[in-house]
Amino acid sequence: MPEPATHQLFIAGRWVDGVSGQTFDSVNPADTRDVVGRFQAGGAADVAMAVAAAGEASKGWRATPAPKRGEVLYRFAALMAEHKERLARAMTREMGKVLAEARGDVQEGIDIAFLMAGEGRRLFGDTVPSELPDKWAMSVRQPLGIAGIVTPWNFPIAIPCWKMMPALVSGNTVVFKPASDAPHVATLLVELMEEAGFPAGTVNLVTGSGGEAGDAIVDNPDVAVISFTGSSATGRSIAERAGRRLKRLSLELGGKNAVVVMRDADLDLAVDGILWSAFGTTGQRCTACSRVIADRPIADELVRRLAERAERLRIGSGLDESVEVGPLVNAPAATKVESYVAIGRGEGELVCGGERETAGELAHGHFYQPTIFTGVGPMARIAQEEIFGPVLSVIPADGYAEAMAAANGTRYGLSASIFTQSVNTAFRAMRDFEAGLVYVNAGTTGAETHLPFGGWKDTGNGHREAGHVALDTFTEWKAVYVDFSGRLQRAQIDNQPS
Ligand code: NAP
Ligand code: MG
């Protein structure tokens, strides 16, 4: 294998080495002999420079008319579309998801960039009548300043774009720390942002570990808002640090998403939806289905069909177009899956999978078989804890009420789905699911970028990404009153009920 290329940080519009001189490697999880690249181990000193650059750039960027900012986003979206295949291949090589899904990940980035480019001509506030005569009342959005963006590896284009696009169009500047398992994709993304014409300092990239670069961003008093997606454990620690500084914080965390299959469901459709949701991206989506709540009369038949199809899924390198399930992202992820499968053997009946896949070339990657347990109790550990791998628990339930109680009986609340042919049951479920995303007759994944994305309960802290509501994370409201009566008018005092 040739010596891997060394990549740099992007600070104040220049590609630079990190202060420490230390680097780390990103490797291909399908073949760990393949080193994707060498990256700067950025730390507090690099973050300080990036924040200073973002602060300097903030003055010009916030003064740039929002439609003009939007034009840069349009150019960036078009560049991503032009480079979609190259970005997708780099993504598959670096973090493992199969090419079709990597293309979808890039497309999500393109979609949100176009959507947010359009926000440059909206950024709506309210204009409302005043309670007093000859007085104008309205609200406007203003940028917060510097946004710290900390992202996971599993959607290495979509998630950074979901965060950076609304941040930038509303006039903030950005310090971006990508996951250490996907620094190459992040570098390619920022190269395109540079080419699109974001002014120097508006976008800064600091690769490096969460504990060093990540914490330095969270702790920096000049960073006004942190947008974080990742595990609940990391989210909790970031929330504590940010809370001490009264910093605005948007968290998108773990999930334990359920598909409910009722006795009147189209079982073939349910099987398609469950397989795609449970084993797509090797179960490593925040919206992955890791629990199926099966109405008892159809439970055995559903499990039989699921197992039959799961056993036939092709495992291998995602760069091979015929492969359906790629590798897990790294060795700790594979170890975590193994330990949960061991726990699962004591909590349910293993129906398929349950082993690493090590045949031939696969021995060089972190491959694991699609695994299904049935007869799992709703409170079992494998039904409660996020495994983030290709492990599905089937939980039998008697009827709608028991199924819904099981579906909602978790501390997470990201995504939920129901398969039923009854319109009444569908509407009950739309009302009853405790989740930020609800699907009817589809799996738990497949959010579109123009509706709010995020979770209830421990999945988040009440913020949403995507849709126009994403702007709420990155803007302050300012209520503006203009009195053109020429006299003192006192709200709540001079407008007594007549
Ligand atoms: P993670 O370990 O929490 O890492 C996420 C990011 O946080 C990475 O950039 C990481 O850097 C950084 N980080 C780690 N420790 C930090 C610290 N102390 N301070 C600041 N930053 C820190 O999560 P992951 O394993 O990459 O991603 C998988 C998780 O993300 C799953 O739980 C999944 O459910 C969740 N997720 C949620 C959503 C959602 O929208 N709800 C979407 C996708 C993923 P390093 O890479 O350098 O450690
Ligand atoms: Mg990697």
End-to-end Cα distance, whole Å, is: 84 Å
Superfamily at the CATH H level of the largest domain?
Answer: Aldehyde Dehydrogenase, Chain A, domain 1
- What is the number of domains? 2
Q: Could you name the ranges where pLDDT drops below 50 across 5 or more consecutive residues?
A: none
Radius of gyration: 24 Å
Mean pLDDT: 97
Characterization of the model:
By secondary structure, the protein is α/β, with parallel strands linked by helices. The protein has 2 domains: 265 residues, Aldehyde Dehydrogenase, Chain A, domain 1; 184 residues, Aldehyde Dehydrogenase, Chain A, domain 2, CATH 3.40.309.10. It is 38% helix and 21% strand. It is built from 15 helices and 21 strands. The strands form 6 sheets. It has a 7-stranded mixed sheet, sandwiched between helices. A 5-stranded parallel sheet has the order 9-8-7-10-11, with helices on both faces. Strand 15, helix 12 and strand 16 form a beta-alpha-beta unit. It is globular, with a radius of gyration of 24 Å. The termini are far apart. The model has no long low-confidence stretch (mean pLDDT 97). NADP nicotinamide-adenine-dinucleotide phosphate (NAP) binds next to helix 7 and helix 8. The site of magnesium ion (MG) has 6 residues, from strand 3 and helix 3.
Q: What does this entry show, briefly?
A:
Helix content is 38%, strand content 21%. It has 498 residues and is an alpha/beta fold. The chain is globular.
